[in-house]
Automatic annotation (TrEMBL):
Topology relative to the membrane: Multi-pass membrane protein
Keyword Membrane: yes
Membrane-spanning residues: 12-35, 55-72, 92-111, 144-164
Taxonomic source organism: Xenorhabdus japonica
Family to which the UniProt record says this protein belongs: Belongs to the cytochrome b561 family.
Name of the protein described by the UniProt record: Cytochrome b561
Length: 186
């Protein structure tokens, strides 16, 4: 088990967090689109948003941990075969993904707490409201939340396609090392 990243490998903590967040983000997107179609009399009308909010707060915590961990354990070096374009565009894409994720989480928090209600995370703990009664807070945050969610989907899809291109066309270890493959062992 390799906990920390090295100059050539992603450690298991970074790998676990990457795939956990990816899975959670796609799941939350589907859950969000589904829950807004529910009618008041549906059994999930209250339960689905509660789940969505609770998981959203947990994702926020995990991403903060991920950024702290990234500082303690920086990602491996880009492969020597990467072009200048790949180096710059991947940095930009990863940075934008972090920003967009924070945008989604912050706007989601502002929608949920606009009326002054705190968010109960599975009944384990409460996240209090801070900014409230800002007039159109819930509406504005709602628009940002939806747009950012779509941006995250499109960007992460392009990011995933780029990873597949590295794997199937360039035949390098970009994708394999995000699954824990050890390039030092041939
Ligand atoms: C919502 C979904 C996703 C998000 C938010 C996301 C986010 C990220 C971020 C922020 C990084 C940079 C890690 C760092 O250096 O701190 C990264 C790396 C990576 N991601 Fe994703 N990702 C997602 C989905 C995917 C998918 C679907 C694939 C593959 C099909 C993928 C493959 C990779 C690979 C291979 C790397 C390592 C790139 C490198 O070595 O520079 N990701 N991802």
């Amino acid at each position: 088990m390799l906990l920390k990243n090295t100059s050539t490998r992603f450690g298991h903590i970074s790998i676990l967090i990457h795939w956990l967040v990816a899975l959670a983000v796609y799941g939350m997107f589907a859950l969000g689109l589904w829950m807004v179609t529910l009618s008041y009399y549906d059994a999930w009308y209250h339960r689905a948003p509660e789940l969505h909010k609770s998981i959203g707060i947990l994702i926020f915590i995990v991403i903060v941990i991920r950024l702290i961990w990234r500082f303690i354990s920086p990602p491996p070096k880009p492969l020597a075969s990467y072009s200048q374009f790949t180096r710059i565009s991947s940095k930009l894409a990863h940075f934008t993904l972090y920003i967009v994720l924070f945008g989604i989480l912050a706007s989601g928090y502002l929608i949920s707490t606009a009326d002054g209600d705190s968010i109960s995370v599975f009944g384990w703990f409460d996240v209090p409201a801070t900014l409230t009664e800002q007039g159109i807070q819930a509406d504005t945050a709602g628009i940002i939340h939806l747009y950012f969610a779509w941006i995250a989907m499109v960007l992460s899809l392009l990011h995933g396609l780029a990873a597949l291109k590295h794997h199937f066309i360039d035949r390098d270890i970009t994708l394999k090392r995000m699954f824990g493959f050890n390039p030092d062992i041939k």
